[in-house]
Amino acid sequence: MRTIIVYYSLEGNTAFTAEKLGGLLGAELLRLEPEKEYPSSGMKKFFWGGKSAVMGEEPPLKPYVFRGEDWDRIILGFPVWAGTVTPPMRTFVKAQGGELAGKPVAAFACQSGAGGEKALKKLAVLLGRESLEAELVLNDPKTRPQPENEEKLAGFVRQLS
Ligand SMILES: Cc1cc2nc3c(=O)[nH]c(=O)nc-3n(C[C@H](O)[C@H](O)[C@H](O)COP(=O)(O)O)c2cc1C
């Protein structure tokens, strides 16, 4: 299966997970970058990122190359912001809906404590799907590593057909 992992990461946890999964699956990685990156420290981080997520913003992204026909499976990864999908991932899904049509899409979310499952459901809605091929939620896997994360990653890989 030709697999690509498309992800956004502000502070590295989602990038860390994407790289691990990429190694397990032999997948390519595509990191989404907003034209204007969100602040990554202090109260500004929560204020601007949270506001953008709550408002359902779709910030413009730096140019990237993605062609659905190149891939048999797409895995999307994002940090949970205000209990929902991170805005740059929203931009990608809205822009690439046509390219994703008919392809298996799995997804993972990184969170600090809560909201991941709900955010994955919202992602499925954005994709116009009943469900995703596989789902995974991890708690800050880079900054607060837990031994059980390895098993969770393996479980996610097993869910992929
Ligand atoms: C603006 C903002 C909003 C957040 N909202 C939530 C949230 O609703 N629930 C949660 O568990 N974590 C929340 N977090 C924490 C991140 O989802 C979590 O730390 C994640 O692992 C960060 O991934 P990253 O390092 O790839 O950016 C929020 C972080 C930011 C910056």
Describe the structure.
- This protein has 161 residues and is an alpha/beta fold.
- The chain has a single domain (3-159), classed as 3-Layer(aba) Sandwich (Rossmann fold), CATH 3.40.50.
- Helix content is 40%, strand content 17%.
- The chain has five helices and five strands.
- It has helices at 13-25, 42-54, 87-100, 116-127, 148-159, and strands spanning 3-7, 28-31, 73-79, 105-111, 135-139.
- Strands 2-1-3-4-5 form a five-stranded parallel sheet, sandwiched between helices.
- It is globular.
- The structure holds flavin mononucleotide (FMN).
- Flavin mononucleotide binds next to helix 1, helix 2 and strand 4.
- Flavin mononucleotide is lined by residues 9-15, 45-46, 49-50, 79-83, 110-115, 140.
Shape descriptor: globular
Bound molecules: flavin mononucleotide
The SSE order reads EHEHEHEHEH
What gap, in angstroms, lies between the N and C termini?
Answer: 10 Å
Q: Would you count the extended β strands for me?
A: 5
Mean pLDDT comes to 97
Number of helices: 5
Strand order in the largest sheet: 2-1-3-4-5
Q: What is the helical fraction, as a range of percent?
A: 25-40%
What kind of sheet is the major sheet?
Answer: 5 strands, parallel
CATH superfamily: Flavodoxin domain
Integer tally of domains = 1
Specify Rg, calculated over alpha carbons: 14 Å
Protein structure class: alpha/beta
Which fold name fills CATH's third level, the topology? Rossmann fold
CATH structural architecture: 3-Layer(aba) Sandwich
Unreliably modeled segments:
none
User: Could you tell me the strand content as a percent range?
Assistant: 15-25%
At the first level of CATH, the class is Alpha Beta
